[in-house]
Amino acid sequence: MTLTPATDAFADTLSQQLPADTLRRVEPRFLEEPRGRWQGSSGWVALPRSTQDVATIVRHCAQSGTGLVPYGGGTGLVGGQIAPDGAPLLLSLERMTAVRAVFPEENALTVEAGAILADVHDAAEAVNRLFPLSLASQGSARIGGLLSTNAGGINTLRYGNARDLVLGLEAVLPDGEIWNGLKRLRKDNTGYDLRHLLIGAEGTLGVITAASLKLFPRPSATGTALLATPSPATALSLLARARDLLGDTISAFELIHRQGIDFLAETLPDIRRPWPAPPEWCVLIEIGTGPATDPTEALETLFASALEDGLSEDGLIAQSKQQSQDFWTIREQIPEANRRIGSISSHDIALPLSVIPEFIPEAHARLAEIDSYRINCFGHLGDGNLHFNVFPMPGRTRADHAHQRDAIKTCVHDLTHAMGGSVSAEHGIGRLKTDDMLRYGDPTKLAAMRAIKSALDPAGIMNPGAVLPD
Amino acid sequence: MTLTPATDAFADTLSQQLPADTLRRVEPRFLEEPRGRWQGSSGWVALPRSTQDVATIVRHCAQSGTGLVPYGGGTGLVGGQIAPDGAPLLLSLERMTAVRAVFPEENALTVEAGAILADVHDAAEAVNRLFPLSLASQGSARIGGLLSTNAGGINTLRYGNARDLVLGLEAVLPDGEIWNGLKRLRKDNTGYDLRHLLIGAEGTLGVITAASLKLFPRPSATGTALLATPSPATALSLLARARDLLGDTISAFELIHRQGIDFLAETLPDIRRPWPAPPEWCVLIEIGTGPATDPTEALETLFASALEDGLSEDGLIAQSKQQSQDFWTIREQIPEANRRIGSISSHDIALPLSVIPEFIPEAHARLAEIDSYRINCFGHLGDGNLHFNVFPMPGRTRADHAHQRDAIKTCVHDLTHAMGGSVSAEHGIGRLKTDDMLRYGDPTKLAAMRAIKSALDPAGIMNPGAVLPD
């Protein structure tokens, strides 16, 4: 399908249908992405102020066969927000940031797609509620992008992925029609679930313009523990033990490998490290409890039980907000340390929980057949989501291994797929992983995806090049 | 679109591609449905033993343009399982009942679509886990139908609807291709979510043949309370209070009106009633707690707090399994009592929680303009899901009001829609509510549904006449 670029003439015609200053020449900030892998093609960006404006823009693109790339906070890690060529129109939702309404008694709020996640947290907190989606980029990521990529993060164990937090959507479909689906219902069985189709479609089936989101009661108290554990297998037993003892209160269960703490020491030496000699594996556990339970006592009970059965040999339970924050800083700064070290290849994978103890040593062994590496394997163990990232040995650089990058990725992804896993757990497909979709995707699913895409976006204008392999 | 009936010649040709005794002449049990509203057209039923057989059947129907109606336990309440005319092929999954695998350490199991819900409960219980989907027909409803209709039931407040309990699906799409989507992953962002598209599509986009389902830890202990409350508004305040005090432990929060208890007294007098003179409104609360919490004490704390603030004036907390069962029998037998009284019109609606106190009196007032009725309003208040059912006054029959049935339904559904609600909360559309889809459905959503249906099922063979209005 050949698309028309968003030329000056196109911008001129479209501008006449929109309020002043809706279209601008693209600024450099829209052309970069966090991985530094792609550079966007310059041209025009639309900055609409209303859903009606979005509809006008999409309709015009559909009629003229012009590609359209929706843009949220620009924090995506798979290039879904960047169009390297073809000069499509960028559509930034950054002016549509209103919290339209808050319904504390319903545990719900309605917010526009351009709202920044941290602002949604604040809006929920203002009515003593919790919006639990939480991830490193929450100060800049916007709701529309977070939903379009079905973002994950640290609280999915308890509260689910982004899609699980959505009651209703408003969206502009690829023909420019507005879908008013902003219901605030916990049950609604009236036809196909368009909501879940748009969530995770990464802007290829329409533009999310607003969402009704689920809120939750804020826990009365939270507790944080950092427990050393001998192996990934014991980490999983510890997770099961924690579930038995602490039930639904566990909001995060993060696996950390010594390699990550060593990287912190190397690149961010000011960060307080909990152990002089870190254990090979540890888990960061966060719980949020109701008024009847003291979270510190609950974590102490867990630790005692884990010690007794050899699931942990050493542990720290935060005795203050500061200590809890210190533990979290370690986990949260590992990605930054990784960035400073410079990975050769990073992998955002998910596995069935029970195969993880087998996966990790097998992946190490297979990679060792290629070369020697430092491997930082960490992530959201409670969800089976590992960030399995491969780095050069000290004294070598990522450039030294550039020729091995594809082999490394294929090695990790082949094993992940063979063990029933996913090669994109929480980051999505974007432009980075379309080849993986071809290699690992179920052919029937791919055919269905193409049929749905053609049916809803026959001209192929929505985020061309993303998600669906050519 | 004109479909070919499943004639004897069709059955003969198809039989040659299948193991012996896969096709049979339809037995009467496949031609009836619980509401007694439709009678199926006779012809042939296929009873496949494997996913491969299902694929053969669907492919043959696609090639010959023969309609195909998937059939689970036959318990659907909106006629989705019945084809009144056109003599399509019925496809019963009743021979595909295997629990393929159980993964206790992953809190997951994989089961075929024909498995009966109660058997899945047992398979989960055998490994000390809980599969929480629970509804009146669980002794005969089958997993495929429950997922195709996105069933709700009594535990959705805590555990979600059927769609929230699914990790992966295996399905045969309308062209006869098998989608192998039986992943057991908590995070998987690799393309459009076909799973959520098939769930709730009521067999119009393919046949679910197996599913990987989420299991949960079994609560250490459960507690049940029946609390009288002055009004729907105080019932909602009581729900909020319960959430504050009991957190995520609340698995059911059911509203009961005196009318339902009076119907029980009238039709099922042997059922033990908790009060000599029942209150106008009461709520049935079920909680499931971890080892650290005594559920009876927790409910006593809630009741004391509710008493103090006038949210309840009288209450019973079950002191034994038997008492808990007695409370549940009241709730569970109300639909049977309704059936014996005979409703003029029943409504399965959902509303935003905060409008319910306004909805109920307004609906009563509007119906009073049509005639005098007895109204039994009950249901899953925690989910905003009401069963708002309209009955004749004593001495009159439903036949006396037959001419008012459409007006009653329109009155209730118009008000529901105007207040942001859904005219099908948990039962689905089937053949009963396709007109409602036209009247209340969002036109953009309807157009997208039609486009998706045409793309995936161009011959229109899958469950013709269900969900999508002509």
Layout of SSEs?
Two copies of one chain form a homodimer.
Chain A (H helix, E strand, L loop, with lengths): L7 H8 L7 E3 L18 E3 L4 H14 L3 E4 L17 E4 L6 E5 L4 E5 L4 H9 L3 E2 L12 H6 L7 H4 L6 E7 L5 E4 L12 H5 L8 E8 L1 E2 L3 E8 L3 H15 L3 E8 H10 L13 E9 L5 H14 L5 E4 L3 H21 L6 E3 L5 H13 L5 E7 L4 E7 L13 H14 L15 H7 L2 H14 L14
Parallel strand pairs in A: 2-4, 3-4
Antiparallel strand pairs in A: 1-2, 5-6, 6-10, 7-11, 8-9, 8-10, 12-14, 12-15, 13-14, 16-18, 17-18
Helix pairs in contact in A: 7-9, 8-10, 11-12
Essential attributes:
homodimer; 470 residues; alpha+beta; Uridine Diphospho-n-acetylenolpyruvylglucosamine Reductase, domain 3; Alpha-Beta Plaits; 5-stranded antiparallel β-sheet; 4-stranded mixed β-sheet; globular
Structural notes for this entry:
2 copies of one chain form a homodimer. With 470 residues, the first copy, chain A, is an alpha+beta fold. Among the domains of chain A are: 119 residues, Uridine Diphospho-n-acetylenolpyruvylglucosamine Reductase, domain 3; 121 residues, Alpha-Beta Plaits, CATH 3.30.70; 71 residues, Alpha-Beta Plaits (2-Layer Sandwich), CATH 3.30.70.2740. The first copy, chain A, has 14 helices and 18 strands. In chain A, the strands form 5 sheets. Chain A has a 5-stranded antiparallel sheet. Chain A starts with 7 loop residues before the first helix and ends in a 14-residue tail after the last helix. At the A-B interface, strand 9, helix 6, helix 7, helix 13 and helix 14 of A face strand 9, helix 6, helix 7, helix 13 and helix 14 of B.
